[in-house]
Amino acid sequence: MDKSEKNNEDETSSFIPGPSSLSVIIAGGGTGGHIYPGIAIAQEFKRRDAETRIMFVGTARGLETKIVPREGFELELIEVSALKRVSLIERLKSLLLLPKSFPAISSLIKKVEPNIVIGVGGYASGPVVLMAAFMGVPTLVAEQNALPGFTNRLLARFVKAAAISFEEAKNFFGEKAEVTGNPIRADFFNIPLKEPGAVIHVLITGGSQGARAINEAMINALPLLAEEKERLSFTHQTGESDFNKVRTAYEKAGLKAEVKPYLEQIVGEFSRADLVICRAGATTVAELAAAGRPAIMIPFPFASDDHQRKNAEAVERVGAGRMILQAELTPDRLAQELMWLARDPQQLSRMAEASKKLGHPDAAANVVDLAMRVISQSNV
Prior knowledge:
Blueprint: H1 3-13, E1 23-27, H2 32-48, E2 53-58, H3 64-70, E3 74-77, H4 88-112, E4 116-119, H5 125-134, E5 139-143, H6 150-155, E6 161-164, H7 170-173, E7 177-179, E8 200-205, H8 212-221, E9 232-237, H9 243-253, E10 256-260, H10 266-272, E11 275-278, H11 282-291, E12 295-297, H12 307-317, E13 321-323, H13 331-342, H14 345-357, H15 363-379
């Protein structure tokens, strides 16, 4: 046994539930889109009872190894890997790991004795929630997307309940589903609605690494926007690799722009924006709704099961945004959409109001309420 395994064992053995407080396992991770909703749920449990024992279960390959400890929660690592969107060899390796992971997961659940296990998506979510269900532990999944991920679709028949963010996801969970919203940082809900002024400020972001397809389309759209240079200003988050190229393009076009490789204060940037050009991940969509910001969404076409497209379609359907598929993302199309909205402030305002209606400021509380009902029903 190496040192890290020994430390994990020590932490687990010290994780003993008190006589009255709850103990909760939150399983999953990999990306921030899975982890941050889990963090929000954990914080809501702790807000209600500071003595609640929270343990996250994830893998060494995910962002949970950085985010969860930083947020002050315990993290147990298990060995599982992806089964979907990987090569046949990688899938076989993942399948071979499962028999090894199940006894370890079973042992962990026995030690922690959780009142409920909540899956938030990602590699660890499936095996942990499935094993908990087999062991008779109450289970719940939190699904952030309009089209549930592969793991949660498999878990649908085993879990007691599903906390969903979009009405469309009800089709996969039936009566087990409850629309709770996607738990995100409360700061986004404190952003007031913004009436467009004489200058429309556009925030362009492709996530922490940027989005090359969006960057390239915008570079080539800039000359087409020159006639609107007095009407438009930009903040463009590019990622490191495209930073210099994008900054130079704005300078040549003579458009007002702040070009940054990374945005440290994303809440502040949302507050300034009249319009956001972005991908359509679940967290981004939830942040747009919380802030009440209209968007031009370019779904990442290689997302699992094309779920970003489903998210964008759900937003577009209620009039809160516009969708451009990446295959249709030309400079002309992007410039046309942008100018159409910039020239119609009333349309931007209507889209902002529709976006705000999609927000769920009590999402974390709703998820915990649902979890408490599951626990209560299981104790009857």
